[in-house]
């Protein structure tokens, strides 16, 4: 058995049975081994940023890591933006990056690079495997680092000769679904719990800010019950990795993207309790505006940091406060009317709220045009909302790919802005190849609209036509219909609210991937 065969068998035996890949020459023995280990679901991407973003989406929905297979340093570099987003989402990902054979390194061939330095930008674990015999053991160390908690990106570098050489050793788990090795999250000490409980009982204005594991399941129910019982405002971080929402689930307001609006949300708050998230800061620096968004005079209480045992922390706090999780408030069901008339961003979001199926997954990279989507879908049937955690655009379509594979049988909606879509449009081909139930809502306003807004907010002096032209996507106009059909998807374009509602309804009820393009005016 060679190293590649042993590596894949070991990964599968420990629960990593999906690999998103864009391989090259140095990875050919890994590719060849896929025929020997058919339990590994191998998913081809045409661009490395699709593979890495898909691994992120898979982890968010499956709750366990996928692997990626990337070609040397340039391949890893091409996938870096979505590994940055995965890092911010605390998604467990195991990168396998092929390298030149150890005997070939000294020749400094054209693709030779310092892979470890590239990997350190996004990885908590980086290791170059030098021994075929030890390769599977290296993989388990990488897997443990990826699983955490918190979840993270772990990168193992695989020289070609370590992959092709005989002597590979399989380190078995208990079968294809387990076990994933990781550590146990810390539980807050009594002083931390007492301080948080006292803050929420104090009668002073308080808010609970949640992220990560606190945005789903029992932890979310318990926190919502605590907030309701103590009269505390409940907020989620601006871009949570996964937020369970919709009818019958606790309603949660997200922090605004714009610092000015966040300041209004937190105005007067004297105690801010953080649960699996960080203290709020402005996304960018702006002239004469604060970066730290915690109000003056507000005390921050860190109940649970990323990687802590969030469930135990919130249950302990509920017990101190004598709150029953079953008392959490629930969002009432509400279905917007089908929109009519001109097609606007608001009409698109209204139609989405009217038609979103139960148990859907929304990969949200709608940016400015998706502004109305959270409100329009608040009372829709229960669903999951996946956000742009690290702010590096080009995440929405790849995350939709991974989410569809990580949660089979559920409809995925990629709410996608035109500018962001163009970063990783190759995702559509993978959706078609895999037959994924992903509906892309393509919000086409012919503009990098968010950058037009930022151009004004940063105080740039009198931006003129040349500056504005750098943010314009309208000349030439991009034909997304031809791009989608050329990559194997059914596509439809809508220019009125009625057309869009009809096409979206058809797409959401038709198996397989499709694109519904909405031609809309810019909000800005």
Summed up, what is this model?
With 524 residues, this protein is of the alpha/beta class. 36% of the residues lie in helices and 18% in strands.
Q: Give a quick account of the main beta sheet: strands, pairing sense, barrel closure.
A: 7 strands, mixed
How many domains in all?
Answer: 3
> Might you state the CATH topology name of the largest domain?
Rossmann fold
The CATH homologous superfamily of the largest domain is called Thiamin diphosphate (ThDP)-binding fold, Pyr/PP domains
Q: Can you tell me the residue ranges where pLDDT is under 50 for at least 5 consecutive residues?
A: none
Second rung of CATH, namely the architecture of the largest domain: 3-Layer(aba) Sandwich
Mean pLDDT metric: 95
Distance between the termini: 60 Å
Helix/strand structural class: alpha/beta
Helix run count = 21
Determine the strand fraction and express it as a percent band.
15-25%
Helix content: 25-40%
The strand line-up of the biggest sheet is 9-14-13-15-16-18-17
Shape descriptor reads globular
CATH class descriptor of the largest domain: Alpha Beta
Rg (CA only): 24 Å
For the secondary structure, the number of strands is: 18
